[in-house]
Amino acid sequence: MRKAGTHCHGVESAADAAASVFAEADTTDAVESRLADAMEWWNRHTRWE
After folding, report:
1. What is the pairing mode between strands 2-3 and 6-7?
2. Domain ranges in the chain?
3. Residue-wise DSSP of 1-49
4. Which of 17, 30, 34, 45 could form a cystine bridge with 21, CB 3.0-4.6 A?
5. pTM of the model
6. What is the number of alpha carbons within 13 Å of residue 1 lying toward its C-beta?
7. In DSSP terms, which residues pair with 8 in a beta bridge?
8. Quick one: pLDDT at residue 22?
9. pLDDT one-digit tens code per residue, 1-49
10. How many CB atoms lie within 10 A of CB 21?
11. Ramachandran assignment for 5, one of left (phi > 0), alpha (psi -120 to 50 degrees), beta (any other)
């Protein structure tokens, strides 16, 4: 995904991480917990230029 002057590094691995959140979580609470973890991971592993 590209916007004017921005490029995000790590999108594909973040998408994989997000997919694993829903694959492994079978309750709403688990999904919310895993999603919070995934968002934390996203913030640590991506950067915008």
Report:
1. antiparallel
2. 9-45
3. -EETTEEBTTHHHHHHHHHHHHHH--SHHHHHHHHHHHHHHHHHH--B-
4. 34
5. 0.40
6. 7
7. 48
8. 65
9. 444 545 555 556 777 777 776 666 567 787 788 889 989 988 888 876 5
10. 19
11. left
